[in-house]
Amino acid sequence: MSMTKLFSPGPVLVKDNVRHALLHYDICHRSVEFEEMFVDTQKKINMLFNADDSYESLIISGSGTSSNETVLSSLFTEGEGVLLIRNGMFGERLLEIITKYKTPLTDIAFPWGAYPDVAVIENAIAQSSNVKVVAMVFHETCTGMINPVKAVGELCKKYNKIFFVDCVSAAGGENIDVVENNISICTSVGGKCVGAFPGSAYVCAKREILEALTADQCKNVYLSLFKHYQSAVTAHQTPNTPNVTLFWPLNVALTNIFEDETLAGRIARYQKCAEIIREGLVALDCRLLLDEHMANTVTSVFLPAGVDNTAFLIEMEKRGYTFYAGKGDYAKQGMIQVANMGEIYEEDCYNMLEVFAVVLIKMQS
Predict the structure, then answer these.
(1) How many independent structural domains does the chain possess?
(2) Same structural domain, 255 and 267
(3) Are 52 and 90 members of one domain?
(4) Known binding site for substrate: residues?
(5) Domain region containing 151
(6) How buried is 154 (Cβ within 10 angstroms: 0-12 exposed, 13-18 middle, 19+ buried)?
(7) What's the rounded Cα separation, in Å, for the pair 36 and 53?
(8) Binding site membership: which residues?
(9) pLDDT (tens digit, 9 = 90+) per residue, 215-246?
(10) Is pTM beyond 0.85 here?
(11) The last residue of a domain, from among 213, 244, 259
(12) Residues 269-315: pLDDT tens digits?
């Protein structure tokens, strides 16, 4: 077991059977055994998103960003554009990808930590003639905010747009229903709420979108959505050699969710742990960044006045607890992020808060 408790939003603490899956005996990725595991993992990814048979899931070797780049480098033909809704660092990551591939862009930017205005979004969609795809982040991890995915999904249905949602920090931690929320295509990775390791990303997409892809419209060689889909449906394979070692832990982590804890049970555990953490931090005179639209797994909090967040993080790590510093200007304002993804349970949260209080007292004395 790790000597450090990772209260950080990825990498996360994993179950022993997930870790042991790294030691699976060597196999060839062109073997029947791999293909059977690949298909089983695809089915479980679909279950994670409450997808029906009209969706297909694909597995990408890389971080969550690799799955996002796979989608955003593959969906567009000449002249087709994207409307991006962003209100934080990971929305800006999508912006960076879109800009790099020179895709026509309608950029709907809100301040970090501001809840997107659906009326503003609808007006932009209605007035944009070349928009094929509307893109946004489900859980903006830099603040811990859950964005209005359901409302935007309704707009995409109304205006007949493809709806792409970055679910990297949401899948397995939030209730995501791609059918109910009109999500056309979404992404995530094993090393977040699912409780596997970084490097095993995936895409869940409407099959009709995948079927309409051509090789030429995909602008990345390794991250070609067309190639990944064709390899999956024709051979239950990936187009290039995948990180086979990480496929096994992803499969085991997903199996743990559906055959042990249940998805609803995992989400409920995350909700309870977040509640314990937030109540405890407020009792210690810390100020939460958000008071609504909060994720089940990330709490952004400002330390009491006079407590240096960098020094505080170092002291907590010495005692076996790892957090993140706040992103961007939030770090300068004394913010840290406390996550409860992966193998974090109620007792862990109470124990962490006890140490948190001790360190605060020490640094305030």
Answers:
(1) 2
(2) no
(3) yes
(4) 337
(5) 17-259
(6) middle
(7) 18
(8) 337
(9) 999 999 999 999 999 999 999 999 999 999 99
(10) yes
(11) 259
(12) 999 999 999 999 999 999 999 999 999 999 999 999 999 999 999 99
